[in-house]
């Protein structure tokens, strides 16, 4: 099936089309695959061409947008031209629009009558969420054309109220589809692809896809089978097989925001933490505090850019800085220990590196980052400290910083999972700050 | 002309197509109108059909996405099928990809060789921003087809490096076009549109467009005239007129990243600064340290989430917290003063608020944020402190935090500009940290 999204603003740069992906995702839940979304401006000819192009190969065409009351809204005209029927005023639609204005305590304007126009023979699709009713009609090709309002709130409301029931009663085939997914951290797409091999082939069932965004690799499997439980089992088995390739990098079924996820996990596990950031300059703290309620396990962190700040705020010995420099194993260890001590937290991670573009040397090139990982288990016991060196390619300051922050998040998650859930929070002096969360 | 955007993820709901609107907006600057954007999944046949459909009516077709190394990336195959040419390995492309891996200190994987495939007779379009070179070829219809990488950062980089010059040299008509732009902070689109009035009409020359992204409103004017200097003058005059409407919110001709811009301005003006962040949790520091070289004026900042941390790290009096709470004018002032004192900087901004979703009350609802603004001019003189309250609509934790961080950045910029350039840096004890920047 196909979707036509209409609106000059969708071709102006600032407003991506949200209705096409929304409808594609929702349709997939009903076993219908959207093969193409065509985005056109408010132009009668372009709208008619797009509907014709889709109707020639698809049994169902959804059109959204351009149903407003102003003269530049011409979707009704474009669809009417495509199906070869004149526009007529629909009395039920006039009544619906008048009712909408009455309920809103306003009087219907004359130009809102335009919104009651639809191709002769079309059936109104009521819109309880705005002044623009939709309509369904048949294309000469036999395709069914459904025209819906453009504002996403209205479109989604009408979809739920009017389209879902029709879809449930009109499945396109006897097959059932199910999906499953898994999200990973610290896993490059090429490494994943190499390990997954033929499972990623386009003809495979389950069909497996991969997307990488903001440090998270997400893989999705869609299985097709003759029974719903069989499809669900196939999809989940494929995902389980993929998770088994990289168990230690697995996050969860689905993760939208790495910082919020790790912050949420730290909170759920009751592991209090702090940070000492140099080259990431607050990025790790900002990522983790995007998790609501994280104040239960997070009291403070330190952005220590200058050497003097590392000494004063974190107690890094002056000799460490003069002998090894700020980007060194010794400094990373001292920073993490300092954050652990000052915060009273159970876990502290430090980040110190050369983000670039300046500041690199042969010995310490741009992309070199040291991490310190300090912990105290049980709380009050002797601190343990570990360190890790990473060398990233010098692909720009923003990327080196983001990679370093993501790696720090992965360290926190790993340490907290290894420690396991504890009844922390209550006993943690730095946490629970009413208001600031 | 037409655009084909390729990617299963674009039909999966979460990721709207950003390349189509970007290319449509940029093409308009060169006098070329994008009439249709067709979004298809990673399917060879659908890609070929979409290219064929556009090539039959358009002289120029841009294709983006699906050039990755994995088996589900089949855009090369789809375009090759459309233009009727076999895929061949392009030696220059192999070399380009190998070079990319070498610079990144890695070894090219075998599946990256796929990225060097292009239709016989095609010309490579170099990509300095990732591993996927693009290519241009001719469709049997005579249309020119340009295939570009999908990640927006890469697409926009390649567009600027490779496509703009071609467009400038291949104008579709005898007219000349020139562009000018201006970026603003803290300016809602509706306020701007109200003030700009008829200048924003779609038929106007210069044609004025507006985009809002990450706290920056950017307006662009494209003027069309029969001589290049006349077009340039018209575009610049219109932009000057728009800047004159909001002079105090004007940033620069173009700003991509608000934090990096403000950090760069603070460095340029030689104003040392620090931060005390509660609800933004490090977001302001992370934004500012995205500016290279900012260590010259930035030594440290404080993320004080817990009340106890505000007391210990910033010296906020316990009575302020018990009487007024953490989200209060008194606390914001004390936090800013504390950061000023502890850091020895000339300027310090604090942020304390209710980001939500929990933690709100009738008196202090979600969206309430207090800012403290402390300064010391001249350095070593008496500190001055000011405060501001803002109430944002409770549209989600991420947005409230981002708005608050952007507002803090605007305060820093305003204060630093009011202070003017100084010979700071040398005398600032906290700054200049070799390695950490």
Which structural traits does this protein have?
homodimer; alpha/beta; Molybdenum Cofactor Biosythetic Enzyme, Chain A; Alpha-Beta Plaits; Maf protein; 6-stranded mixed β-sheet; 5-stranded mixed β-sheet; 13 helices; disordered C terminus
Protein described:
2 copies of one chain form a homodimer. Chain A is of the alpha/beta class. Chain A has helices at 19-29, 44-55, 75-83, 91-103, 152-169, 189-196, 228-245, 258-269, 283-288, 307-314, 318-324, 329-343, 397-419, and strands at residues 2-6, 36-40, 60-64, 87-89, 117-119, 123-125, 134-138, 144-148, 176-185, 207-213, 216-225, 250-252, 273-277, 300-304, 347-353, 368-376, 383-391. Chain A folds into 3 domains: 2-169, 3-Layer(aba) Sandwich (Molybdenum Cofactor Biosythetic Enzyme, Chain A), CATH 3.40.980; 176-252, Alpha-Beta Plaits, CATH 3.30.70.2860; 258-419, CinA-like (Maf protein, Alpha-Beta Complex). Chain A is built from 13 helices and 17 strands. In chain A, the strands form 4 sheets. In chain A, strands 2-1-3-8-7-6 form a 6-stranded mixed β-sheet, with helices on both faces. In chain A, a hairpin with a 6-residue loop joins β16 and β17 (383-391). Chains A and B meet through α1, β2, α2, α6 and β10 of A and α1, β2, α2, β10 and α9 of B.
> Per the principal axes of the C-alpha atoms, what is the gross shape of chain A?
elongated
Biggest beta sheet attributes of chain A: 6 strands, mixed
**Largest protein interface, residues of each chain:** A-B, 102 and 107 residues
The CATH architecture designation of the largest domain in chain A is: 3-Layer(aba) Sandwich
Structural class of chain A: alpha/beta
CATH class designation of the largest domain in chain A = Alpha Beta
CATH topology of the largest domain in chain A: Molybdenum Cofactor Biosythetic Enzyme, Chain A
Weakly predicted, low-confidence segments of chain A: 431-437
What is the straight-line distance between the termini of chain A?
45 Å
Order of helices and strands of chain A: EHEHEHEHEEEEHEHEEHEHEHEHHHEEEH
């Amino acid at each position: 099936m196909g979707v036509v999204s209409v609106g000059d603003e969708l071709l102006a740069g600032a407003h991506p089309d949200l209705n096409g992906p929304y409808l594609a995702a929702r349709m997939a839940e009903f076993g219908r695959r959207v093969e193409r979304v065509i985005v056109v401006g408010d132009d009668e000819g372009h709208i008619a061409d797009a509907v014709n192009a889709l109707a020639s190969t698809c049994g169902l065409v959804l059109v959204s947008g351009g149903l407003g009351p102003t003269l530049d809204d011409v979707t009704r005209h474009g669809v009417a031209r495509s199906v070869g029927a004149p526009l007529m005023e629909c009395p039920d639609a006039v009544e619906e629009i008048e009712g909408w204005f009455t309920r809103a305590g306003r009087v219907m304007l004359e130009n809102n009558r335009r919104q009651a126009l639809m191709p002769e023979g079309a059936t109104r699709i009521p819109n309880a969420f705005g002044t623009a009713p939709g309509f369904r009609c048949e294309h000469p090709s036999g395709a069914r054309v459904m025209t819906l309002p453009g504002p996403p709130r209205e479109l989604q409301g009408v979809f739920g109220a009017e389209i879902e029931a029709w879809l449930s009663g009109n499945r396109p085939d006897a097959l059932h589809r199910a999906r499953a997914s898994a999200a990973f951290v610290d896993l490059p797409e090429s490494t994943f692809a190499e390990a997954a091999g033929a499972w990623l082939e386009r003809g495979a069932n389950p069909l497996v896809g991969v997307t990488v965004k903001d440090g998270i690799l997400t893989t999705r499997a869609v299985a097709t089978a003759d029974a719903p439980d069989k499809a669900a089992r196939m999809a989940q088995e494929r995902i389980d097989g993929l998770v088994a390739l990289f168990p230690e990098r697995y996050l969860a079924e689905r993760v939208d925001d790495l910082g919020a996820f790790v912050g949420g996990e730290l909170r759920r596990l009751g592991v209090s933490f702090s940070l000492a950031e140099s080259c990431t300059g607050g990025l790790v703290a900002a990522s983790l505090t995007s998790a609501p309620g994280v104040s239960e396990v997070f009291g403070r962190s330190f952005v220590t850019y200058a050497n003097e700040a590392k000494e004063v705020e974190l107690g890094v010995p002056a000799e460490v800085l003069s002998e090894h420099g700020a980007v060194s194993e010794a400094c990373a260890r001292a920073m993490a220990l300092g954050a652990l001590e000052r915060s009273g937290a159970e876990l502290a991670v430090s980040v110190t590196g050369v983000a670039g573009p300046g500041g690199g040397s042969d010995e310490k090139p741009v992309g070199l980052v040291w991490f310190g990982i300090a912990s105290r288990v049980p709380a009050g016991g002797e601190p343990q400290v570990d360190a890790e060196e990473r060398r990233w390619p010098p692909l720009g300051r923003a990327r080196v910083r983001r990679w370093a922050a993501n790696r720090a998040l992965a360290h926190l998650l790993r340490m907290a999972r290894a420690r396991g859930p504890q009844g922390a929070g209550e006993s943690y002096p730095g946490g629970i700050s009413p208001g600031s969360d």
